[in-house]
């Protein structure tokens, strides 16, 4: 203060002598110089802070570098970096001295562009290559701002007045450039912040930390004003270098938005902060506040009480000129808006509306009436910028096309494309008391006595075995049943021909079916006796309804070359359909059900649950068998409930609804799928591993089909091929959680194999999974290139993307000592039975999914390939695919006949996966539309116990 007073007196003396202008003259000139002085002060303030920020951001890198290459290099590095910062300061000061006075001259816009270009040229000469990118970016944005602004000087002052917001951006970009070039992992941000939602975008520098003057690197703080509310998050594509766009500060009253969960943009691969030790458990705990947010002009014109949830910049416009780019914004109330950056008005504003309400399920329509608000999870432009996708929180995806102007065109709506989960139907599992367990064991002993009773007639023993199988308790008596049927095959067949004199069609067909189920290659020629003189099946058989039903059931075990069974199938199905309406209700129900779902292709547990209720109504039922079936069913259901509960806890930690809102939330459905593969108690651990992998594969499938960009999917495919946790930093954030969870599942499987001394077998499962992901990528390339493959090319890839080869291989992991390495070599060698099951899966899926896929951009289907290559109608193509399914079933039946290449339990896994497709995909995709048949199946197997009376 004293210095200032002395200086003031000296100035007064000079003014009196005329060496300085008088006060009046100074006041006149002051008005002209205010702008220049203020501009100089702000700019010098800016350059000093900028220099300091650059220096401090270099320190952490230097510190890590020094730790690795010894402290000897540390001082040299700091000296070099300090010189670089000084060069920046010198360049900026010289450029400012040349540019700032020109503001008062009101030069035309073209002249300002020239000045800015000279500034850029000067920067090129002074900056090192690593800093040149930052200089070019900032100066280019400044130059473009001058060309579009009405008052360049005003824009520059605005730039100076918002240094608190500009600094974090400059620091962030600079650090990203430096860290990307160095051979070290990026420094972990000091203060991880809670995540508002899955769309959170991690950044290298935390805005809140910087704003508070947080310690960076070696403990030196940057002192900036601390905002009361963290700044909102922005899409990685955003280039916030436009000084004409007014971004809110951290003190903005607007609620933070959530954007795409990526640690990189689609175009640039930048490192992100990952705490690998805690990431899998906490999902998105690695969110950090970004130092910039949505332009105020956009925030202010959004509907009242709406908050931005996601945004994405037009990919092509950004590459040409930032100021011609468009940004799409989605809000928490379902509004979508398109903006031209730099503009004060939106181009397009759309409110949420379901385009085709009739396509919605009734539960969804009711929920929509009760609560019409639908939040937006994500908006994203297509790579060519022609389309943008809007993903809503209620599993609705709408795709719009935009070609300029003030309108968007409705392109596609996928309502409930991934359906609603049945997870809410699960009940808590109770405990079985010791008395009930003892009762089950005693009843099992009684059944064994029935089976080994040699005094029983052939019809009685065959009916008993059929009852045991139909009631679902056959797995307790596999050795006894095999022994009995082996004896029957020895006594009642000759050269493969059944030699029963009895003309009982029901008995003959039943015996044929049971022997075939057990793998005995008995001849169907025995049914020739039921033909008339013209070689057709006799019309008299219509009177024997039960015999006709058994003949129909037996025909489902036919193999290639058995024309007589093809004829019998056509005859029996035609006659049963014609007489069904004329039968008594109970018999008619049996006939109609058999026509709809055959025993051989049905799910054993589901068939058992249904038959227990029917058998109980039979006055001649065996009480021992019925009681055992009831108790055993409830015992297994209790075990399965516990397994589902444990898996659901794991699933809940993934928080699929928040982290992957685009994906099918289908954990209970996956449990039900795996129960179809093997339900026996000894496979509990195997079910756990397989269910987790199936559920995660479902998310990956949806990511490839409906969400990931081509660049993201390439990165993920490469990471799967490398199979290394080191690939984590190369992936977008939402893919990191998938990748880490996937590796953990296989680690769990590896530990299970290690206990059994078969750890070397894990490589076969990993290889099959890698093939699946590579096939996913192949199909995405087809879609991206609009390529339609020929049928042989399609079926080669699509049978892999069905997931069945991988699931079959992984299902063997938990089968303990039986699953030797030879078994894994066999299953991965593409045996006929595996190929057949994948054809069934792919064909049935494509048939029922075709109508839904036509409503959205999709990968070409088998049906479409068939129609195009054979030049036939859709109906004709469906018939051909159904014939292919029938032939595939014949392949499976043939592969299950003795002698088999592998033990029967391994074949049963494959057979059961094919059965699941027949049950759940016969009329519709019950996995996607889970509220129908799938829900009923889950309720029957996991919710409703069998009443014990």
Automatic annotation (TrEMBL):
- Gene3D superfamilies, per the entry: Farnesyl Diphosphate Synthase (1.10.600.10), Terpene synthase, N-terminal domain (1.50.10.130), YVTN repeat-like/Quinoprotein amine dehydrogenase (2.130.10.10)
The reply on keyword Disulfide bond is no
Requisite cofactors: Mg(2+)
Composition-biased stretches, type Basic and acidic residues, lie in: 1-19
| TM ranges | 50-73
As one GO molecular function, the record gives: magnesium ion binding
Print the keywords alphabetically: Lyase, Magnesium, Membrane, Metal-binding, Transmembrane, Transmembrane helix
Q: Where is the Terpene synthase metal-binding domain?
A: 652-891
Composition bias type Acidic residues, residue spans: 22-34
List each copy of the Terpene synthase N-terminal domain by range: 434-595
- UniProt cross-references to Pfam families, sorted A to Z: Terpene_synth, Terpene_synth_C
Q: Name one GO biological process term.
A: diterpenoid biosynthetic process
Name under which the protein is recorded: Terpene synthase N-terminal domain-containing protein
Species name: Arachis hypogaea
Taxonomic path: Eukaryota, Viridiplantae, Streptophyta, Embryophyta, Tracheophyta
């Amino acid at each position: 203060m004293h210095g200032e007073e002395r200086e003031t007196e000296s100035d007064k003396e000079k003014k009196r002598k005329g060496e300085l202008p008088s006060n009046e003259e100074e006041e006149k000139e002051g008005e002209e110089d205010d702008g220049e002085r203020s501009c100089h002060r702000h700019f010098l303030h800016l350059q000093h802070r900028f220099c300091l920020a650059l220096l401090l951001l270099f320190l952490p890198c230097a510190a890590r570098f020094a730790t690795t290459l010894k402290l000897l290099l540390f001082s040299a590095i700091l000296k070099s970096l300090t010189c670089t910062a000084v060069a920046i300061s010198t360049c900026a000061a010289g450029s400012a001295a040349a540019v700032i006075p020109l503001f008062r001259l009101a030069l035309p816009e073209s002249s300002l562009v020239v000045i800015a270009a000279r500034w850029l040229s000067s920067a090129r000469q002074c900056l090192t290559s690593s800093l040149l990118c930052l200089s070019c970016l900032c100066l280019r944005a400044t130059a473009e701002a001058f060309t579009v602004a009405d008052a360049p000087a005003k824009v520059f002052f605005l730039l100076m007045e918002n240094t608190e917001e500009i600094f974090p951006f400059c620091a962030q970009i600079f650090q990203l450039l430096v860290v990307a070039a160095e051979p070290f992992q990026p420094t972990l941000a000091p203060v991880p912040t809670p995540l508002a939602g899955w769309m959170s975008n991690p950044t290298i520098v935390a805005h809140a930390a910087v704003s508070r003057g947080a310690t960076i690197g070696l403990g030196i703080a940057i002192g900036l004003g601390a905002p009361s509310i963290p700044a909102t998050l922005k899409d990685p594509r955003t280039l916030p270098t436009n000084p004409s766009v007014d971004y809110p500060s951290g003190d903005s009253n607007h609620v933070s938005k959530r954007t795409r969960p990526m640690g990189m943009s689609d175009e640039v691969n930048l490192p992100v902060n990952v705490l690998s030790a805690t990431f899998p458990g906490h999902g998105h705990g690695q969110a950090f506040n970004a130092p910039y947010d949505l332009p105020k002009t956009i925030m202010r014109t959004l509907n009242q009480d709406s908050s931005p949830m996601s945004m994405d910049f037009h990919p092509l416009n950004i590459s040409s000129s930032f100021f011609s780019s468009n940004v799409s914004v989605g809000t928490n109330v379902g509004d979508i808006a398109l903006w031209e950056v730099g503009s004060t008005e939106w181009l397009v504003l759309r409110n949420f509306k379901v385009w085709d309400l009739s396509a919605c399920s009734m539960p969804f329509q009711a929920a929509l009436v009760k609560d019409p608000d639908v939040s937006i999870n994500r908006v994203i432009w297509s790579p060519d910028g022609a389309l943008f996708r809007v993903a809503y929180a209620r599993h609705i995806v709408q795709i719009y096309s935009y070609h300029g102007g003030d309108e968007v065109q409705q392109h596609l709506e996928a309502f409930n494309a991934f359906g609603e989960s049945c997870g809410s139907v699960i009940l808590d599992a109770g405990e079985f008391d010791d008395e009930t367990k003892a009762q089950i064991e005693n009843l099992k002993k009684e059944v064994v006595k029935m089976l080994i009773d040699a005094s029983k007639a052939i019809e009685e023993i065959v009916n008993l075995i059929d009852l045991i199988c139909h009631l679902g308790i056959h797995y307790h008596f596999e050795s006894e049943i095999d022994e009995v049927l082996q004896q029957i095959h020895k006594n009642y067949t000759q050269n493969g021909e059944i030699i029963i004199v009895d003309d009982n069609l029901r008995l003959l067909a039943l015996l044929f079916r049971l022997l075939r189920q057990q793998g005995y290659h008995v001849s169907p020629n025995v049914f020739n006796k039921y033909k008339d003189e013209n070689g057709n099946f006799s019309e008299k058989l219509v009177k024997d309804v039960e015999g006709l039903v058994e003949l129909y059931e037996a025909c489902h075990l036919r193999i290639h070359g058995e024309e007589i069974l093809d004829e019998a199938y056509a005859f029996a199905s035609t006659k049963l359909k014609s007489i069904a309406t004329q039968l008594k209700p109970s018999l008619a129900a049996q006939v109609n059900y058999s026509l709809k779902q055959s025993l051989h292709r049905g799910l054993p547990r589901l068939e058992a649950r249904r038959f227990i209720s029917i058998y109980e109504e039979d006055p001649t039922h065996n009480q021992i068998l019925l009681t055992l079936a009831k108790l055993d069913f409830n015992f297994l259901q209790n075990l399965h409930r516990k397994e589902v509960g444990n898996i659901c806890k794991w699933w809940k930690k993934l928080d699929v609804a928040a982290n992957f809102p685009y994906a099918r939330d289908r954990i209970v459905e996956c449990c039900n799928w795996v129960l179809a593969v093997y339900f026996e108690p000894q496979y509990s651990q195997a079910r756990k591993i397989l269910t987790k992998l199936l559920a995660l594969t479902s998310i990956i499938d949806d990511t490839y089909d409906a969400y990931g960009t081509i660049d993201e999917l390439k990165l993920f495919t490469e990471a799967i091929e490398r199979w290394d946790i080191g690939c984590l930093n190369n992936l977008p954030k939402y893919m990191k959680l998938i990748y880490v969870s996937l590796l953990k599942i296989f680690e769990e499987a590896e530990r299970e194999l290690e206990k059994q001394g078969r750890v070397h077998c894990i490589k076969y499962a990993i290889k099959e999974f890698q093939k699946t992901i590579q096939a996913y990528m192949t199909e995405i390339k087809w879609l991206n290139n609009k390529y339609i493959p020929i049928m042989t090319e399609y079926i080669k890839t699509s049978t892999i993307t069905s997931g069945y080869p991988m699931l079959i291989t992984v299902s063997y992991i938990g089968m303990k000592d039986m699953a030797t390495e030879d078994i894994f070599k066999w299953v991965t060698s593409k045996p006929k039975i595996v190929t057949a099951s994948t054809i069934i899966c792919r064909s049935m899926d494509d048939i029922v999914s075709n109508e839904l896929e036509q409503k959205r951009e999709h990968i070409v289907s088998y049906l479409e390939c068939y129609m195009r290559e054979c030049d036939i109608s859709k109906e004709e193509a469906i018939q051909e695919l159904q014939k292919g399914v029938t032939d595939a079933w014949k392949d499976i039946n043939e592969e299950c006949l003795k002698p088999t290449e592998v033990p029967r339990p391994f074949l049963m896994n494959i057979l059961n996966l094919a059965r699941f497709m027949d049950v759940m995909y016969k009329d519709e995709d019950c996995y996607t539309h889970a509220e129908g048949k799938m829900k009923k199946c889950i309720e029957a197997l996991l919710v409703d116990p069998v009443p014990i009376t």
